[in-house]
Design goal:
two-stranded antiparallel ribbon, mainly alpha, single chain, Fumarase C, Chain A, domain 2
């Protein structure tokens, strides 16, 4: 009887695996939803150009275009998924339904490099444009929040200590302006992404007389990437994309950190809406700021993505290929996570409750206004700033040592301190001292450009609204350009199919 034990030599001789591991193919399906519409548009534009230039026989080119339009009629994404997903799903579906003479024709004068490069650029400009629109919505919510809280005084902090009184409006407009810079960076990247790499092949282009500019025009690109090696194998745009997402996540994470601190029991400056909190399984009184903690964590996620993308793109030109599947997944993942949270933040700002009375009491409680006390000494007593600064610093220390809070001090207290310390000619009256120590009055005096004073803030709100209107028109124009190009592409294809000829 033959032993059931298989020898090592027999095991090596047994038939081995014939298919690649599933994980090596799984990435294709993951990107179908992200890239299908972009690859399909490129398929149409590429074949239309081949037909117009006579590079493909007209009958073959028309059959390919008819098949691509049939995919759209049946559900383009579903067809591509059924054909295996990935960049070459269009070719696979056409081959299955029309044969290799038609399906195989679509790959003429291009490579996987073209497909990957153009799908990234089209995905990037689409996603970046969505992010710009979401940022505009969030900026609008910040402006509305600021308009409701122009008079809501609060303590400003540096080094974790009370610094000077500000307003919730000034805080909100700080983030509006920071996010405006983020939006400007996104717009600049869109401009850099909006040049077509199609026709570069894998590095050296093609011997066929293709028209790269025609494909770029049909896909709403501003032009072509002039160097084919650069178009196919430079990936600095992925790094820049990851960098900008990192900066944007930093801005949102910092906002979350502010609200997280102010929401603590000890600060109590804001109250989060119920829908943005969690509770404890044991302690029924707990209102855990789950939504803010999630938002804070965006920044380390984005940093990890940037590290991954930069690490992937290391090495000589053309080496990182397979690794990019993983960095692409992380890049698209953080973009999606960011978009989900940007959708929520305007609602949060609308429902966030500012505890105005408590915030103003905090602003008045810890000597945050005494910068103006030093300024008053300069104006009234004609002494230099540094001497005035030193006198006020000493006076505050003296009051703290005596357990004398700022709302109880009088001009006699200050004048006595000044006399004890040799500044016999330096005096203040009660009215001046009272004005200097009041947080609300402190804020109202800051009406210089960009400050928290009411007139300055109204000007800031008006500037922001004008800028947002301008940006909204710019975004709408760009979207119209893409939509018009897509409509023209489909119309040109359908005209060619109807007449069974190319122009």
């Amino acid at each position: 009887m033959r032993s059931s034990v298989i020898s090592a030599s027999e095991e090596r001789a047994a038939p081995g695996r014939t298919d690649p591991p599933a994980y090596m193919e799984a990435y294709k399906e993951a990107f179908v939803e992200d890239t299908a519409e972009f690859i399909h548009s490129y398929d149409l534009a590429h074949v239309l150009m081949l037909g117009e230039r006579g590079i493909l026989p007209a009958e073959i080119a028309l059959d390919v275009l008819a098949g691509l339009r049939e995919m759209q009629a049946k559900g383009m994404k579903e067809c591509r998924r059924a054909a295996g997903g990935g960049n070459h799903a269009g070719e696979a579906w056409l081959t299955q339904h029309y044969g290799s003479a038609v399906g195989g024709a679509i790959g003429l004068a291009r490579s996987s490099g073209d497909l990957s490069a153009i799908s990234f650029r089209m995905y990037a400009r689409h996603t970046l444009m969505d992010l710009r629109e979401q940022l505009l919505t969030l900026r609008g919510a910040l402006v509305d929040f600021a308009a409701r809280h122009v008079d809501a005084v609060m303590p400003g902090n540096t080094h974790g200590q009370h610094a000077q009184p500000i307003t919730f409006a000034l805080w909100a407009m700080m983030y509006h302006d920071a996010l405006a810079r983020d939006g400007a960076r996104l717009a600049a990247l869109i401009s850099r992404c909006n040049h077509s790499p199609a026709g570069a092949g894998i590095m050296a282009g093609t011997e066929f007389p293709i028209d790269r500019r025609r494909v770029a025009e049909m896909l709403a690109f501003d032009g072509v990437v002039p160097n084919t090696l650069d178009a196919a194998l430079s990936h600095d745009l992925e790094i820049e994309f990851a960098s900008l997402l990192n900066l944007l996540c930093y801005s949102l994470s910092r906002m979350a950190e502010d609200l997280f601190m102010w929401n603590t029991t000890e600060h109590g400056l804001v109250t989060l809406p119920d829908w943005f909190i969690g509770t404890s399984s044991m302690m029924p009184q707990k209102r855990n700021p789950d939504g803010l903690q999630d938002l804070r964590n965006l920044s380390p996620q984005a940093q990890a993505t940037l590290t991954m993308v930069m690490g992937t793109e290391r090495g000589p030109t053309g080496f990182p290929i397979i690794e990019r599947r993983n960095s692409d997944r992380m890049l698209r993942g953080i973009a999606s996570a960011l978009q989900q949270r940007l959708d929520i933040l305007p609602e949060l700002l609308a429902d966030l409750k500012v505890e105005s009375d408590r915030a103003e009491a905090h602003a008045n409680a810890y000597w945050a206004s005494v910068t103006d006390l030093a300024g008053a000494l300069v104006r009234k007593n004609r002494i230099d700033w540094r001497t005035a600064h030193g006198l006020v610093a000493g006076f505050v220390r003296d009051c703290i040592a005596r357990d004398l809070p700022p709302f109880e001090v009088t001009s006699d207290d200050f004048n006595a301190y000044a006399s004890r310390n040799g500044a016999l000619q330096v005096t203040l009256d009660d009215a001046t001292l009272s004005r200097c120590m009041d947080a609300r009055a402190f804020v109202s005096r800051r009406d210089t450009f960009g400050g928290p004073g009411p007139e300055a803030m109204e000007q800031a709100l008006a500037r922001a609204r004008f800028a947002m209107d301008t940006e909204a028109r710019d975004i709408a124009d760009f979207r119209d350009k893409i939509a018009s190009a897509q409509a023209e592409l489909l119309s040109t294809v359908d005209t060619a199919l109807a007449g069974r000829r190319f122009r």
